[in-house]
Amino acid sequence: MDSPRDRPRPVPGSRAARSDDRSTAEIRTDGGAEPDSAMSGSLWQFPAVALAWQNLRRNRLRSLLAALGICIGVFVIVVLGVFGTVLQLSASEELGGIGNQVIVSPSAETETDALTSRQLQDIERSAANRGTVVPLYSDNAFTVSGSESTPTQVYGIDRPAELFEGEDEPLPVQHRGGALVGASVADTLDLQLGSAVEVDSETYRVVGVMAPGEDITPVQPDNAIVLAEREFTGEYDQAVIVADSPEDATETAAEIRDRLNVRVEEVDVFELSEILETIAEFFTLLNRFLIALGSVSLIVAGVSIFNLMLMSTAERRGEIGVMRAVGIHRSDVLKVLLVEAALLGAVGGLFGALFSGIAALLLWVATPITLDLVLVWQNAAYLVGGLFFGSVVALVSGAYPAWQAAKERPVEALRG
Amino acid sequence: MSEHSPNTTAHDKPAVELQDVTKEYVGAETVTALADVSLQVVAGEFLAVVGPSGSGKSTMLNLLGLLDVPTSGVVRLDGEDVTALTERELTDARREYIGFVFQDFHLLPTLTAAENVALPTAFAGEAQTDRAVDLLRRVGLGDRLEHTPDALSGGQKQRVAIARGLINEPAVLLADEPTGNLDRETGTQILGEIQQICERGVAVVAVTHDELVTEYADRTIRLVDGQLGEGDDGFAT
Asked: What is the pTM (predicted TM-score) of this model?
């Protein structure tokens, strides 16, 4: 038999590649059976992961609780982020219309109560290629139908479809006669198409009912009557610019100010997109604040993992010493321990992300929030980010105990 | 017992050697665990090291196994000075040349018998899973491959530990109280296994309080207060 003494041995640390020499392995098998194949693959393809997983399974309750901490932390962060995003997008959608409108009216400083033709021309030049200018007359009056009456805002608009929508039928592109009534007016006075209403002692036939206004804007249709322009005299009272985008609205407003308010403030320019920006900033700030608060729970989970790893490595000091004694490098031991921490974070983070995804879908099911506000890239980013952050917190928390355990001299570790 | 030929070749050098080795522990006071000890163990030799508690047996075993470094003196493995190796080189040397059998077995409780045996090879390229199975069958545990340590008796655990110590075909097997936690009958069986290992050319050094071990050993040396006992020679005859 070829003994180890007969085989050439290189210097320590520079062992030659082993050939498949089994001369020292006398096989006294039972009936010549083949080596058991149960061990092939699995554990030894990824030894660090397999050993780490088995170590975590030794004390399942403790591992579960540590992962649960990460799960809760990730859940809190992701839910806060998702809910905040949904709230912000929902608010933007609700308020979105106003971001595109610019309301121009005569300035109080000029002591006039109407826009001149020159001013209107400047307004139209400012809005060119950015949106539509809708000049309008504005007044207040009681609208009467039968024995009922109600105070209303009366508008004179040539192209009401640019500003409002019809409830059942589209509004006329050009308003030539009759009255368009708002939803609240129609409801109060029980008006339908063809009903007669009296405004300022003039009788008009209802030719359309406007849909309830969904946007927040000073020019609201709900409690209004819209008459044809020919019912009014004089100059326009206001001009509404319906811009193509909030950015166009901002640019239009700026140009109007440049044109009309250079020497004297001739017009008041009410730019609703500024409000929208302020609201968006508020939501963003609120969201970040809440997420920062939520992060505290993740930090607490990290402390829990730090403690678990300290206890676990202390309990396994002898085992770690044996691993080092039989020739497993410090770096490989460190790898096993770090993988343990990372697995806790990954498993906890995965379930945290899963539960927060379910919570987001429940938000859609249980509230008027639409699904398209939930399925946005920002929410996906929170899910992925929460999972990643949870894993990182766990890894960082486990790093110090892992390092301390791996670097201990095997002779010290074996003493226990 | 093996002969120590005067016409030595590189392959006949002692499997492991201590030359004028001293180990001191510096604390509140300096403790000398080993004092100027010289020792050679050749391939195929079974050396028993006996002595009272605190005599330095474990320290000697740790130095032979490259788990510790001497305060002075030289440690050689297969004729090569390994005293000044780096931590990484020492780890490689342990894996390639030395097998350990611990008194408390120190098997990983989450691994099966076969996985425990193959553990030293897990991170060094391909795990020697087939060899692990072969070794376990050789020590009579062919039907315990998938058992975890809690399902094994003391003697079976010791056999698993021995198999693990042999997985990398070491030149030297170091055993700390190999029969310490075993009954006499099981201890006898284990010692028989160790003798067979020596017959295959592996040098075995066993630290023990058990007189039975000395009966199986080729040579016994006695350590007293960190020194070889009077009349004991650290060199094979």
From this structure: 0.71
